[in-house]
Amino acid sequence: MSWVSKTLSSTLGRKLLMALTGLFLILFLIGHVSGNTLLFKNDGGEAFNIYAKFMTTNPAVKILSYLTYISVIAHVVYSIILTRVNKAARPVPYASSQASTNSAWNSRNMGVLGTIILIFLVVHLQGFWYQMHWGNLPTVQYNGEEYKDLYTIVKFAFQQEWLVALYVISMAFLGFHLSHGFASAFQTLGLNHVKYSPAIKKVGLAFSIIVPALFASMPLYIYFMN
Question: 11-36 and 161-188 are packed helices; what angle lies between their axes, rounded to 10 degrees?
Answer without folding.
Answer: 130
